[in-house]
Amino acid sequence: MSRNHHIDHKRLVVPPGGKVRLKDYDPAYAGGFENKAQAREALAEDVLALAAAQELLWASAQYSLLIIFQGLDAAGKDGTIKHVMSGVNPQGCSVHSFKAPTDEERLHHFLWRPGRYLPARGRIAIFNRSYYEEVLVVRVHPEWLAQQWLPVQQRETKNLARLWATRYDEINNFEGVLTRGGNCIIKFFLHVSRAEQRKRFLERLTDPDKYWKFSAADFRERQCWDAYTAAYEDMLSATSTASAPWYVIPADHKWFMRAAVADIIASRIRALDPRFPSVTKERRRELAQIRRALRAETGT
Q1: Spatial separation of the C-alpha atoms in residues 1 and 286, rounded to whole Å
Q2: Fewest CB within 10 angstroms: 2, 57, 88, 250, which?
Q3: CATH code where residue 134 lies
Q4: Among 240, 246, 268, residue whose Cα is nearest residue 172
């Protein structure tokens, strides 16, 4: 690659077994980029690299890629997916947004829901929010557990700490099965500051063309900022593993956030070392015969 700048992935990854304190991660960190133009150039290069890597992923059909985006409202999940995946072949990629679970989904274990959207080998699946909502928004609003038809004992206040710990373990086991089966899991927490979220909310409330982006529910959830911070810190600490680590991506500068995400995805696919399928001698002879026949055709 021609880029002169290197994004330090180690600075962004959550070490397995460590205790996360989000105040240690600067949401305005820009990775040494001097300006927006530099970051956009880096993004453009990684978008091209990602397109090439996806072709290998598709052709080899040995690995699949699951990309998870979590973050508070206005962190930039939709825009990041749009910009980073702009060069990807849509035939090999799907995006699923996790909204409130349906009645059918609430009648199942919470990990039944994502199982239906996992990528087949050679494909990429993107979760815009994910099953992690069950240890984030549901933790902030534990009264929602009553809608999940859980045994009463599990959702009693005195047992909630045990419930979250159990869910962390279940998530780690679930992701362990996936990674051992050839699924590369990349998890991004888009870390936006409270001041930047306020700025983006005001932009949506000031520009009529952005009214549609704003929900009163977003403002109500903002009042739970400290509770969400605690939930994210515990979740990141408990579920960042060697095979499926979390990356805390500074999100106050959208241009850095997108460049960092693209760089990490492209690098992780390259690390899988996918290769085009090998061709047998018999197949090569057959292709050579077809090639000679096509060259011998006349009048076309």
Answers
A1: 37
A2: 2
A3: 3.40.50.300
A4: 240
